[in-house]
Design a protein that fits this description.
The model is unreliable at about 1-20, about 25-40 and about 135-140 (pLDDT under 50). A hairpin with a 5-residue loop joins strand 2 (about 15) and strand 3 (about 25). By secondary structure, the protein is mainly α. The strands form 2 sheets. A two-stranded antiparallel sheet has the order 1-4. Strands 2-3 form a two-stranded antiparallel ribbon. It starts with a helix and ends with a helix. The chain is built from 11 helices and 4 strands; from the N terminus they run αββββαααααααααα. The chain has helices at about 5, 35-40, 45-65, 75-85, 90-100, 105-115, 120-125, 135, 140-145, 150-160, 165-180; strands at about 5-10, 15, 25, 30.
Length: about 180
């Protein structure tokens, strides 16, 4: 496709091509075709947004799994969410988009989800856990982490002997438990 084909006038009246191949629309408004340039220019941003939505979806599913009353379906998620949210209710389709990483809720909806699921809002929204002041006091010193105990070495040895799918389950369990602080 040529550049000429990519530039399309908004208004067809009095638009002209100049001798050097430059397009000059009557007036100043013209647009670039999304198929050639528009899609390419926003591609990295779209990929980042898609990654953010998928990462949010993963965190939401993790929080739902560890919840005392987990919502197993998008419909259950929508019902449970709507019981707690004071704004406009969501549809099961919206909840499904959250779960599949096709959409991400607004900040106030994430706040409601975090309160309901008892997880830090910053973790659910951004994947970052901000330690509370009380927990920071009990954090082990860096020097305490530098040497493994015999029990920890045995645990690592046993973990490495597990099949990959069981190692993945253990990692997910540890991540879930880490949310509890």
């Amino acid at each position: 496709m040529s550049v000429r084909a990519a530039v399309q006038p908004v208004s067809k009246s009095n638009d002209t091509w100049h001798a050097r191949g430059h397009f000059k629309p009557h007036g100043s408004s013209h647009q670039l075709s999304g198929s050639l340039l528009g899609g390419c220019l926003s591609h990295p941003r779209r990929m980042r947004e898609l990654d953010d939505k998928q990462a949010f979806s993963k965190r939401l599913k993790q929080a739902l799994r560890r919840s005392p009353k987990p919502a197993a379906t998008a419909s259950e998620l929508a019902v449970q969410f709507n019981l707690r949210y004071l704004g406009e209710p969501i549809t099961p389709q919206a909840a499904q988009k959250w779960l599949t990483g096709k959409a991400r809720p607004t900040a106030n909806k994430i706040r409601t989800l975090a309160e309901w699921l008892d997880v830090p809002e910053t973790w659910l929204r951004f994947g970052v856990k901000v330690p509370s002041e009380g927990r920071a006091k009990h954090r082990p010193r860096e020097s305490d982490n530098s040497v493994l105990t015999t029990q920890e070495v045995d645990l690592i040895r046993c973990f490495r002997q597990l099949p990959e799918h069981r190692q993945r389950l253990i990692r997910e369990l540890v991540e879930d438990l880490a949310l509890d602080g």
